[in-house]
Amino acid sequence: MNRFLQKLCYVIFILNLIACGSYKKSKDGVVDGIYLYQNGVEIKVNSTYQAFTLANDSFSIRYLSPESDMENRKIYSAKMAGFVDVNELDKIQEGMRISDIICFKPGSGMAPNTTGKYDLFSLTNKAHHYLFYLNDKNKRVRLLEKQNNSLLLDFEISKIYVNRRQIDLFHMRGKEFYIAVLIDKNLNGIIEKNELFKFIIAID
Questions:
Q1: What is the largest CA-CA distance in the chain?
Q2: Within 10 A of 9 (CB to CB), how many other CB atoms are there?
Q3: Among 20, 49, 115, 169, which residue's beta carbon has the most beta carbons within 10 A?
Q4: Cα dihedral sign for 147, 95, 200, 106?
Q5: CB 19 within 8 A of CB 131
Q6: Using CA atoms, how far apart are residues 124 and 141, in angstroms rounded to an integer?
Q7: CA geometry: angle at 19 spanning 141 and 143, to 5°?
């Protein structure tokens, strides 16, 4: 990509950011929102199948989540799955029971490393990254901000694991992959509006 196109993409990225505004709750009070962050720039994911072209460098997926209530056994998490086939996104739809989805069903959460975090973002249609924040010691994502009973959380991606290979994003240039993020905000086990986000990541 030449310098002019790089500048043009950056301007579009910034204009989208300004249009999106800050983190907020929906009109019914439900926390929602998925954001991509790279090199100091942040943009909101607004629609299903929205495509983003990112530099071949680490980036973060930021999201708003209800705060877990340990006393009442209400544990909120984000289930994040990555795929090499865009058709896998079509298999995940609003109205489905989470237990019926192969990559999100109980027991399909991938184990983190010994520090409790994920070093690699795995592309597989059979499992997901199980992300949560309970406190400073028990967490798999980074806490950026607390807003009343909501948490702004950050999950960084710097390396991809696919076909038993570990790949730096630098070597993913010209390739794309697909991500589905599910946050069951009312813990009823069913995908409802504003709980599922699906988007495309292309690495430049």
A1: 55
A2: 15
A3: 169
A4: positive
A5: no
A6: 20
A7: 15
Q: Which residues contact 30 (CB under 8 A, 6 or more apart)?
A: 185, 194
Residues 102 and 62: their CA atoms lie apart, in Å, by 24
> Distance (Å, rounded) from C-alpha 181 to C-alpha 81?
7
Q: In residues, how long is the chain?
A: 204
Give dist(CA 135, CA 11) in Å, integer: 37
pLDDT tens, residue order, the chain (204 aa): 444 444 434 434 444 443 344 444 444 444 468 999 999 999 999 888 899 999 999 999 999 999 999 999 999 999 999 999 999 999 999 999 999 999 999 999 999 999 999 999 999 999 999 999 999 999 999 999 998 889 999 999 999 999 999 999 999 999 999 999 999 999 999 999 999 999 999 999
Is the CB of residue 127 less than 8 Å from the CB of residue 162? no
Asked whether 79 and 52 are in contact (CB, 8 A), the reply is no
What is the per-residue pLDDT for 32?
61
Residues 6+ apart with CB under 8 A from 195: 94, 182, 183, 184, 185
Q: What is the pTM of this model?
A: 0.85
**Ramachandran bin of 13, using left for φ above 0, alpha for ψ from -120 to 50, beta for the remaining angles:** alpha
The strands making up 176-182's β-sheet, listed across from edge to edge, are 50-54, 196-203, 176-182, 78-83, 128-131, 109-110
